[in-house]
Protein: Large ribosomal subunit protein mL43
Organism: Sesamum indicum
Amino acid sequence: MSLRGVWQLQKLIVSFCNWGGSSRGIRAFMESHLPAFREKNPQLEVVTELNRGYHPFLKGFYKNKNERVVCVKNMSPEDILQSATRLRNSQGRKVVKLKTRHVTKHPSVQGTWATDLKM
C-alpha cells in the first residue's frame, strides 16, 4: 500500500525448492503469474531464491525496516498471487493487539455498556 504516494514494499523474495512436492504451486506461480506481477509492479524488486529441501515462502522487506514472511506450502498459484498482493498492499507495520474493543481518548469511569446486565 502506498503511504503518501510511496509504495512501502521494497523487495519481495520468492524462495522455493526445485524438487519438493510442497513447492509445486510456487513453481507453477513462477511460470504463469510472476512475470505479469513484475510488470505490474515496476517499483518492486522481485528476487527468486532456490532453497533446496525447505518449504516455499514469500518474504517482504519494507521501507520501515520491517519484514514479513508468509509460508506458501502446498498452495495453488492463485493463492500465492493473492499472498504476494497482500504483502505488496500492506504497510509493513507490526500488528498491535488492542486491550479493549473500544478505543477512546476519554474512557468511561463506569465501564463499557452491555445489554446483559441484570438489575
